[in-house]
Amino acid sequence: MKKRYLAVLIAAFMAFSPVNSFAADENTTEETAVEQEQNDLTEQFSTFITSQYDENLETLTFDDAVNKALRNNSSLNNLKASMDLAETQLELQYIEAYASEDGFSGLISFLNSQSSYQNNELSLAAQEESVKHSMKEAYINIIELQRDVALSEMSLKNDELNLSLAKIQLSNGKISQSEYDNLNLAYSTAKEQLETKKDTLELEYISLNLLMGTDINNRYNFVMEAVYEPFELDIPAESYINGKVALSNSVRQAEKSYETTKQTSKLTPLNSSEVGSYQSAQNSLNSAQMSYEDTKDSVYQSLYQKYNSIVQEEKDYTSGLEELKLLQDEFERTQVKYLNGNASYYELLIAQYNVASKENTLLSSVYSHMLLAEELTNTELM
User: Fold this and answer.
1) What is the rounded CA–CA span in Å between residue 114 and residue 108?
2) Measured between alpha carbons, how far is 305 from 86 in angstroms, rounded to an integer?
3) How many Cβ atoms from other residues are within 10 Å of residue 352's Cβ?
4) How many whole angstroms separate alpha carbon 40 and alpha carbon 357?
5) Which site in 48, 141, 190, 286 is 20 to 30 Å from 42, CA atoms measured?
6) How confident is the model at residue 104 (pLDDT cuts 50, 70, 90)?
7) Which helix (H) or strand (E) holds 59?
8) What is the model's pTM?
């Protein structure tokens, strides 16, 4: 047995011993439990698996990553530049509209330009929030991939040990050649899958650097708090979602377009002697109204789906905590058996892996819950 494995197991034994952290559960007050839920859960779910850390690398905070991405986003920069130009043109159109003797054509043109500018203001705010949210997804994705690679490496070491034991069993005639071949194939497959995950992680590093406009070869230490806060409403979910729909960015844009079209349609008949122009204005009005109603319905359905996903995430998280406690108890029992010679080293490693795997699942669930909650509360993302 390697010394480093012994060190890990001894440390784990101390961490899971009845006189340590888990024994305190019985004495933990409800208030303390709530406080723990609202704190960073990364360490709590990192008994065996942690995010990679290298003292030689720069620590990239999420805020730093977002600021770099905002500065580097070409769409945002182009929109800001076009809005600066449009603002100057809008002032000129306003003067011309009220100084013109061509009826209402100048005023209609100004109202359309004003609506376009106001929608661009909404678009700018929405794009900025979208960049931030996308960066959060990318940032969290890298943290999860790092942990997933570490978990797969743990599993592969277990498979390697199991394969070595199977080789001995094969030589002693305790298993067949086909059974050994199946284990060998499973090990080779797991090894290939681990390499694929590492390649995926490298691509995510590159994508993140491209978003930030930095050297694609840069690597960082990542720090992201995993905070679980149950989503509680003081009003019915339907009322809450309807309120968010009214404030959502896309609905406000559709409403602005509808109101502008309504204004211009009222001016068109006064400026036109052709029935066709009037009918065209009415068609545009009907289209804008339908677009407004469709947008509201689409946003409502999307938000309701997110709300249901949050409710399900919270149910899964609660049951996941219970499952983790059972796995931790099983790990403790296996430790005692192993120390008494009643369980194999391989059985101990499997019990350890099961705890690590469930912790990884729970941490991913917390991150997913955080993202969904942001999508449900931030109206600029809607």
Assistant:
1) 10
2) 38
3) 23
4) 19
5) 190
6) low
7) strand 58-61
8) 0.80
